[in-house]
Amino acid sequence: MELKDFLWSLITIYVCARVMGELAARIGQSAVLGELLAGVLVGGSVLGWVEQTEPLKLLGEVGVMLLLLEVGLESDLQSFLRVGWSAALVAIIGVVTPFGLGYGLAVGLHMSQLQAIFVGATLTATSVAISARVLFDLGKLKTAEGNIILAAAVLDDILGLVTLSVIVGLAESGTVSWLDVGRTAGLSVLFLTLAILVGIRYAHLFSRLVNRMHTRGRLVITALTFTLLLGYAAEVMQIAPLVGALAAGLVLARTEHQGHIGERIKPVTDVFVPIFFVLVGAAVDLRYFNPFHPENWPVLLLAGGLAVAAVTGKLAAGLGTVGGTINRWAVGVGMLPRGEVGLIFASVGLSRGIITQGEYGALLIVIVLTTLLSPMLLKRAFSEAGR
Amino acid sequence: MELKDFLWSLITIYVCARVMGELAARIGQSAVLGELLAGVLVGGSVLGWVEQTEPLKLLGEVGVMLLLLEVGLESDLQSFLRVGWSAALVAIIGVVTPFGLGYGLAVGLHMSQLQAIFVGATLTATSVAISARVLFDLGKLKTAEGNIILAAAVLDDILGLVTLSVIVGLAESGTVSWLDVGRTAGLSVLFLTLAILVGIRYAHLFSRLVNRMHTRGRLVITALTFTLLLGYAAEVMQIAPLVGALAAGLVLARTEHQGHIGERIKPVTDVFVPIFFVLVGAAVDLRYFNPFHPENWPVLLLAGGLAVAAVTGKLAAGLGTVGGTINRWAVGVGMLPRGEVGLIFASVGLSRGIITQGEYGALLIVIVLTTLLSPMLLKRAFSEAGR
User: Fold this and answer.
1) Which of B184, B166, B186, B185 is nearest to B176 (CA)?
2) Helices (H), chain A
3) To the nearest whole number, what is the mean pLDDT of chain A?
4) How far is the C-alpha of A113 from the C-alpha of A134, rounded, in Å?
5) Where are the domains of chain B?
């Protein structure tokens, strides 16, 4: 990619994301909704202005890591732990129900075992990035519901990792090594726990290090490097790097510099994040959405069924919350967006030949639907409750 | 490039740049000196930890653009215009003398005409990026000397563009189309003048636009997009995009948001800029520097001669300044660094077969020498003058 093309892509992304984000905010929606739609617009299936090139993708990935760093910085571990049981229940119900419903539907439609398992699995994983961003936009990050949604989405990510390794095992050898699966799950839980506990124990060293530096950018670069390190470690453990970044944020929230880090990191996040959401939007292939094309009818029907499974599954998860004052509807709605996680899942399935083009199209529709629906419904869920 | 490798490269760059930058500051040097040396260290000829991959290069390019945006924001057009004649003289003398000396030396050493012209030309262009960064680090951006250095370095860039097009013409067809050369030069001057004049005339529209936005990041994204646009336009006109970014900064300096833009853009600059300087350092091939290898002796001798030409040429340029109170020594020293511009020049020559490996090595040594010398000498030049 030449510099000229890179600059032009960035300009396109920023202008479109901003215009659409502002419009979304103007009609009372989360700005991320506008950015996702901007992505669909500039992506290959409409205008074709922005391609999924490597530098842009990498910048986007760093972008969500920064977003999760900010989420961590503004949260505190205590309030996550306080909702631990609720979050665990939401995560588990939110994985089991959509999987069961999707699997059942697929078997009923005479798909193969492997296909049915795959379709069910694609419906399970909530997108941490989109949930976090919507909560941010709505200013609901620090509510009990916000904490439950985030914690459950992170647990989802680990459960999703387990599911994916089960499926890849099934597809490749026809059997599942439960030992491997258990090890993957155990290691990732261990990593998260250790990173946060050890991190908090030694958080004061961060401030001491920064205080000994004299040159410009000491705070932002040290915080960023720490975040990249934990993200890298997560990636090595095969968990999503943004889970590592969240851990970094939770640790940095315990330092004396917490406020200043947030202040300095915000503009950096603002620069990287739109790239991510625009690319997620741009990855959507609209060709399956046309209802006037008879070939799409079976796809749309399947999508309808799967969408019901995907939505009711996560809404049921919202019921899993413990405690009387929780807005269960908001939690369920907040768990809806499948976003980039679903997209990755679906495209793995397509490229490995596990699912057909039509099934891929149907999953795509479900992912777009849940992702766009969640910001709208979440806003209403919070405002109706008068919070 | 996979995400894992990308994260690891960033971590390496940030850790090494910071450690070396802090050390440089500790011994009273500009931090950029440390970052350049960190680059040499992690680059291919020593540790080989960081490769010149595309995403990193693009980020670095955006980094220098942000640096020049900041320079523009903190400057004002008036003080540039006030030193206009001095800057023009410095630029012209600073191109003509090193060219003449280098060319003469090369002819004396029986190089071909084309080779001699090329070697002379490589000695001409001052690196805007490094000069600007050193002035920044030393807090001398707003001095008359700082203004002269920057303005002259920008003019240098345009003169360098002209020189390069002359040489490419000579190398390809043996003749020079003076019409083309004149058009290139004219267009780039026109672009700069127009961008700044029209920009300042309509600068109030920027603030009006930003004030109508409601979502997060409106200031930083709008300023960045404007900068990328002018950088892109410069790139299209074949001038360095950082000249466009400087123009953007000068325009934004006239808006009511000037202070806030600076505040928000600083952390973003801090994140991007070290990548650029580390990559410049990493591009240095140390194999020609070993004096214990007899094969290198002619290279080192040639380098010695060219270094004298390169240094005296720019110091002579310092004498070109008009006005009694100017620290002419500081101006000359500030024009020394050839940095990435020289590197690009030299590698074009090598890859097109215009110069030999040995001549390339000698030029490399000169570039490194002038680039590392300038921060050290500039600091002393300013402090001796008691300013």
Assistant:
1) B166
2) 3-26, 31-42, 54-74, 77-82, 84-108, 113-122, 128-138, 144-173, 178-201, 203-211, 218-236, 241-252, 258-282, 297-318, 328-334, 339-351, 357-384
3) 88
4) 36
5) 62-273+292-384
Mean pLDDT, all residues of chain B: 88
- Counting one residue from chain A and one from chain B, the pairs whose CB atoms sit within 8 A come to 144
Chain A residues inside the 8 Å CB shell of B11: 225, 228-229, 232
**Which parts of chain A are beta strand (E)?**
none
Could you give the ipTM of this predicted complex?
0.89
pTM (predicted TM-score) = 0.89
CB contact A185 to B (< 8 Å): no
Q: What is the CATH number of domain B62-273+292-384?
A: 1.20.1530.20
Write out residues 268-287 of B within 8 Å (CB-CB) of A.
268-271, 274
The answer to whether A59 touches A272, Cβ cutoff 8 Å, is yes
C-alpha of A278 from chain center:
14
Q: Report the pLDDT value the prediction gives residue B237, as an integer from 0 to 100.
A: 83
**A65-272+295-384: CATH topology:** Na+/H+ antiporter like fold (1.20.1530)
- Of A26-30, B105-109, B298-302, which range is least confident? A26-30
Tell me if B235 and A3 make a contact (CB, 8 A cut-off): yes
Say yes or no to pLDDT of B38 above 60.
yes
Closest CA to B281 of B56, B5, B26, B4: B56
Tokens coding B102: 């280098």
Chain A residues in contact with B241 by the CB 8 A cut-off are 3, 7
- Grade residue A387 by pLDDT with cuts at 50, 70 and 90: very low
